[in-house]
């Protein structure tokens, strides 16, 4: 047995342990050694992390309290001159693993480095002596090299905050750390009590001063978020209706090496504006002490204060800027100078969203045979109770009286069987298939603990990023589900019959849940979630269709240590046959 | 699929049902607008290629082609003079003939998108088209290309007009001069798009817009290659996640030299998340990005099997695959059709980028190649992508120039041609006839 334990650790994900000479005790001993080594390695990695700078951090284990997803390692390059060139700017190399000192290490080409597979995400990384070395970007694509500042433009009640919040939610869900900065919020913190529209009069010196200060405070927080806290996109939500104000922002961005992208909303339809005011302004802290009529009147005057000085983004004067102008809630768009990947994704997203009232229904397939046996994955059919759910679902849908309901399923038997019970047309999407549990497919949790205790523990340590061997992670799922989200945004009334992990991902998008919360969202069988967009968010109604079913929700156990006992590991497994 | 009498319940070969989303309910007519030499045909051809690749049956109808068939010999720009009655009549007829073919393609031949490629520079002409579309139940989407940069126009003329059948008997100077006058004929009556079309973009239109925003014409090259020879390759096994053989590592070194020799500025390197592509990239000593979606096709239950073993264990599956290799999905695995869907973001990002080297896998490379070279679903799964060979793709005129560069490192052949007998009842020998040699 000439291989070192460390080398064997690298091989542990492949089929056989090569040094196995056929004796079970020897193999057990090797496995235990490997586990100990892995644990030591994890501890060493933690040590290194503590010493390393934030940008290159890659957590192997993270019982983390971070609310945002970790930013993938990337180059510190910032090219502030890219933005306003006439031609397509050159974007510096996006791959993340170079930092100036790394480049120098690479100079003398030697033998290719050995690879080791990260135990959590199953990503192959170069290593020295069996230990992971550099941190290659694991993100599908490095979205931006330099952070992006999105700037809204438009009169009050044109949907700027709606767009800001929605965009922020979308970008965070797909893994781009984003935060919105609403100047109105800053103003409310500064001027504790809102008196009237007079504050916004263009000749109100005091008001102007405060508003300018608030904008500066917000920009300062933007700078901190993008330059120091690992943010990638900041949405600066304010009217920004004058060219002068926008110029200030552009200069601010240039100084700090941020790209700027403007999102202007232009609308003159009085009905849309009225509806807007009713939906979001009346409930605003500004108007808690007013009745509807007073609030509407005051707000209309507020809008008037901006109108005279409003300088819309102009095709000629602003031709060097990157922007999208949304006209009449998406009737027309004007897009100018989309510079990079993230901007084109943003434009695509903005062109697909709408505000037509509608509802999205999410549910899982009816109870399946494997469910009842406490097994995950697979492609089994419905139990009698599962079929009962199908019938109840059909009744429910009829009662809802929805016009033009689209029904989507995965390509797995159990969702299709459920849809069949509805006797309506439905579409099958392969990307709605349940998370691929790889080697653990069709296993019970007890069996996973038995055969792969290390894997089981790693999964509990970071359920979002953990990838099953030869399978997927929740993080992979989100990427695969992005086209579904995009199409859901385009559609109106839709019923999605899917699976537990898939439903958690979709729900997290609509309810703005973090990566840490997502894998533990409760999505029980035989329950429909009805999501209705309202104001800036989503109303959720949970409707149980009163058909019994096994519980498939496994909470995170207290002990997630790889050395925990079987009992500790299986503590939260729901009962099954 | 629901069980029907007399029908097999196999889901893997179902066609329309597996489509991610029904793109359009009614067909779409895309109409280009713009003066000559503004890139309308470039956009039309590229868009058509992209839509066909993602599975939307699309065809382009170039009115200039119809005109060339009608007026056999092109004399000069005079044909396009706005006061040339004869010329106008012929051009109107050609446009009608093209629209008629559009109607037939969309209404009778199962087409979903037709690209009507002509100048369409007057409101009157566009109004005619809008009415035509309304009568036939087609949606209309205009794509206008506006450009006043003389360098761009000049480059355009040099790249695609000089080689046009119209100018075969002219020298460069004459051709350019005539073409400039041709452009002038349209300029006076040019009415840029300002139609207020009162509707919201549908799915296919928003996909088209997204695509058009991402493409560019900056010169660049895309390099496609597979990982170096792997252990499983040598044993005639498919899939898996094995490492490189010594010859595979040799390829890595040769690839590194090759890349240096090419002297490319700002080369991006992409790999999959499988060990063999990453090992290959490591040999280049440059930064690279790992994409999970570049992983090899998932062969499901057949992972790591030899073809002989697949024939042994799953002879029916093996035959079905030979019958329709593009749509065939391995049990618990994927099909080429699935692969294309999963690779679409890669194509979109490749369009955005400039110089890129993609180190991937056989099936993946076939899909990417099919996009660039406009191959059909039938040809795609049989494209030749041997190990240790780099394909250099350079966009030129309306298409792509391909250079195949073998790096002279021996490797096993992994290409299996379609055997003659694809019947389910065939014998083992017939099934295994085209399996390449291995250990």
From TrEMBL, chain B:
GO biological process: fructose 2,6-bisphosphate metabolic process; fructose metabolic process
InterPro entries: 6Pfruct_kin, 6Phosfructo_kin, His_Pase_superF_clade-1, His_PPase_superfam, P-loop_NTPase, PG/BPGM_mutase_AS
Active site: 227 (tele-phosphohistidine intermediate), 296 (proton donor/acceptor)
Stored SMART domains: PGAM (SM00855)
Entry-linked PROSITE patterns: PG_MUTASE
Hydrolase in keyword set: yes
Stretches assigned to the 6-phosphofructo-2-kinase domain: 22-219
Pfam families, per database record: 6PF2K, His_Phos_1
UniProt family annotation: In the C-terminal section; belongs to the phosphoglycerate mutase family.
Entry protein name: 6-phosphofructo-2-kinase domain-containing protein
